[in-house]
Amino acid sequence: MYQFASFVFLLGFLFLISVITGFLPLGEPPMLVGQVIQNNAASETGASNFVTSVVLGYRGIDTLGELSILFAAATAGSLVLSGLKQKSIESGDAGFLVKSASELFFPLLIVVGLYIVLHGHLTPGGGFQGGVILAAAFFLPLLAKPSKSINSLALGLIEGLSGAAFIIIGLIALFNEGAFLKPFFENGELGSLISSGTLPLLYIAVGLKVGAELASLLNLLNQEEVNDS
Amino acid sequence: MIEAFVLILVIIMLAAALSALLLDNLIAATASASAVSIALATIFIILRAPDVAMTEAVVGTGLSSLILVLGLKRLKLWQLDTQSDNEEVK
Amino acid sequence: MIFPNELNLADLVVIGLLSAGLLLSLLRFWLGPSTPDRIIAVDTLSVLITASMVAMSLWFDNQIYLDVALVYVVLAFIGVIALARLIERGNQ
Amino acid sequence: MIPDISSILFSGAIGLLVIGVGGLLLSNNAYRVLLALVIAEAGANLMLVIAGYRWDAIAPILTGDFTPQPMVDPVPQAMVLTAIVIGVGVQALALTLIIRVKKAYGTLNMVEIKKRMEMDFDRLSQEANQPGKLEDNS
Fold first, then answer.
1. CATH 1.10.357.20 fits D5-57+73-128, yes or no
2. How many domains does one find in chain B?
3. CA of C64, closest CA in chain A: separation in Å?
4. Do A150 and A136 contact (CB within 8 A), yes or no?
């Protein structure tokens, strides 16, 4: 009975979405806000990547909320798992190939992650993507040797400092310019690395925070509980 | 010809999404969930959204499969031949 | 149009070969009797998708899509390594 | 023979959404419910990005000589970027909850988990209703 009701619901859902999308034309969005952003973003924020100027400039406080949601998820995860007695996994190391590949890939991944973070206002990418790559870089040695673990105190320190830096930049903008998270340095030349005001600084803070958070989350999931029950 | 390429990508995406729900083995289901992200990232590139494509590639292929694999390891569900979906692996 | 430029014969050959490779690896993914077969099929799929991203960077006449391909191929490696480690542990 | 591009893209998004919601409703394993959630999320993201697409437009990144050209809408792309990152946080949190449930009840079957959870709730409410119990706890 439950399965029959679910199928009926699914058919209705399919019909509803099909009807809704039937009225949507592809390729002709109304672009009420987007047109204004396209006309003004290059002169207002100085970033050539308009998604970056939307994420950090026009909707900066949303990014702050997103960071708090990610922080809340990581904290709740460690809270849920904190009741279990944890220990590191005592399985064997990986083979020769994976160990050498992880040692070879570690500096490469760091360089790629920093490149993605630093060029967030020029090319696709930015703090979130680069942060994920940094977290993966620090987790790759653990994949090869599961008995090791990352120093969680340093990760917490990095995360707290970078989160505080994001808010402090926003507060400086609030007191100097009159709006929270408003970009306040000079825009510079469009398309050069040192340009677009405080957006690269904000993206560096976001990248460090996301990277430390996700690395600590992966480190938490990598341990396993003691079988004492 | 060009629509055919997009059609193949959509077919791969839907097939991987179906097999993520239908395959018995949970490791293969995780692999097919990352195949959904693979095809989706290319569709995002065709739709001129390189930022979203990069995020989907990074998160869906790398981080999400890392998280799910670590979860499978902790759930002790990593045996290769589980007969049925709901069977307990001791 | 979805693709801006007019495609010549070489581009059509590239599209045909990529489509054939994608369909064949999808076939291996469906048929693959064991889990390692399926994981290898996903890995092949990711390599082909990287090639098609580079081809799209050519078709769209824009070099920013190469960044996406670079990041993508690095992270796909890590995902496949993680899945392979899981299977290796299962066989012990 | 080949349908036009808009119906292909919309059917992909609709297919992902329906497959994901169907998996949420019909699957019996808690881990598979998580996978279905990931797929449904991907469908919603694809729908948003399709809504911002524009014919004959470039990606919203200025390159080359920085001349203004028609671009696709950057606002839905920024929203999808936020949604993907939040989705992975939700996914990690759900996975920790699944690990905790597996530790407590020893199974991942949703029907079994619901049955045992209701038994636990009944036991707790009976204990709370018995007179004299509350003074013992305090």
1. no
2. 1
3. 6
4. no
